[in-house]
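To close the section, here is one more complete example, presented without commentary so you can practise reading it yourself. The ligand is heme C.
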Amino acid sequence: MRGKFLAVGVAAAASMMASVIVTDSGARAQSKAPLGLGQDAAARPWKRYPGWPAADYSKYNTLGKLATAPAPKEPRKLTGPVGGDAANGAKLVADRSRGGSCLACHVMGPAGNADLPGNVAPDLSEIGNAGREDEWLYNYVFDARVYNPETVMPPWGSHGFFSEAEIKDIVAFLKTLKSPAVFRTALDNPEKRPQPVEKRDNLDPLENPGMWAVEKGEELWKLKSASGFSCNTCHSDPKTSFKTWAASMPKWEPRLNKVLGVEEFVTRHARTTIGVDWPMETDNNRAMSVYLHFLANGTPIKVDTESAEAKAAIARGVELSKRKVGALNMACTDCHGIAVNKWIRGQWMGEPKGQYDHFPTWRTSLLAIWDIRQRFQWCSVNIRGDELPPDSKEYGDLELYLASQNQGLTMSVPGIRH
Ligand code: HEC
Ligand code: HEC
Ligand code: HEC
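Output:
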């Protein structure tokens, strides 16, 4: 056990003692960190953040369940030419309220000029010359899966983002696109747009407001709870004891039968040792997580990828990252694999390597710290899918997979991101 152990006669101490085990080798007594196993580590039922899209996406896949109706088997028949109002189509392709907009992924001639179009998908500025049949275009927009089961395109028609008449208007607009895009500024052209570079020193409190959490974490470390215990009671030298610990997380936890990350550890361990309730994604939890990561800054990420349990979890994480979820029917890899080093509208998609070493991270656009599970939640809701509670097993698998992709990178927390 690290540090001194002064616990006498309280429930925390009893549960801690009970969890002390002796290794098979008998070489040394090894204690397992006590974990409150009985309760969830996050609010139930999980409530979506105010300000996030509020709709109910329960008829679509999540990372926890399969629900999306199967793709249509046949293209829809059109009787005659598509007709449609091209001017209305031009508005619809730029309308962000329908689950994003076509311009998030496509350059579309004149329609994209004011909207920082993305380049995940082919430039459609000259699609009107491509000799595409009306019916083909109509079906590609309605539900591209009839032609390409692996498509990245959301099924705009099948999932009700646009009505049949609106899709006809969009097709009428696409047919007018016959000349290369003209951009007003270099910024509008996703091929020329400069990649964002984060130059701030993320460990300088003047530059990173998220550093509040380090101070807060340090305070919490010493704070005596009603039971008379603090973290410091049993671990008086956190700077030494936990110099590498966070860099080894997340890890498979047999007692929970899932991958355990730092934030869930904090909730469970604090509950059972000092008797406080710091549920995941609440301020004290975030602060303690930042602090524990901060102690391990400079340490290369080294998660277990070798044990049978870790391998199985990573394999599940890989599968989950490829699962189509939400009304937009997209997978993590549709953006973070296929679209890597491209723009989704004004957002540059970096590689998975470099997406973990800075979590929890300060979000300059939101003035808040997000931990990795909140990021997973947002990326799910953003594709119009229900998020899972942060302590879900699936997020554990995903986190271990992502961490394994970041193996060897040096941790630097709290990070700064847009
Ligand atoms: C999330 C990114 C994304 C969004 C948003 C998107 N598309 Fe696409 N689209 C693609 C990709 C990628 C392809 C290339 C083939 C594929 O993956 O199916 C494509 C292909 C197409 C094609 C076929 C082009 C061809 O000639 O092969 C059409 C037409 C099209 N998109 C129209 C639209 C319209 C209209 C919208 C908005 C209602 C839209 N797209 C929104 C990603 C997107
Ligand atoms: C009653 C004693 C006690 C208290 C109080 C206590 N811990 Fe622990 N903690 C342990 C024991 C026992 C272990 C397992 C042996 C070890 O790693 O030192 C442990 C392990 C840890 C570990 C390493 C976990 C791992 O996976 O090996 C961290 C991090 C930790 N504690 C953080 C905290 C924090 C944060 C607090 C305050 C909320 C706290 N501890 C309060 C007893 C305690
Ligand atoms: C529609 C595209 C899209 C999909 C699908 C998507 N993301 Fe994201 N994700 C983004 C964007 C945009 C960002 C912010 C830009 C960035 O930081 O890379 C982001 C950021 C992230 C980050 C933080 C990167 C960093 O460096 O801070 C993680 C981690 C992440 N996503 C995980 C996931 C996971 C897991 C899934 C699947 C559940 C997923 N994303 C699905 C668009 C997407």
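Once you have examined the tokens, check your reading against these statements. Confidence is low (pLDDT under 50) at residues 1-29. Residues 330, 332, 334-336, 344, 347, 349-350, 355, 361, 375-376, 379-380, 383, 398, 402, 417 surround heme C (ligand 3) (CB under 6 Å).
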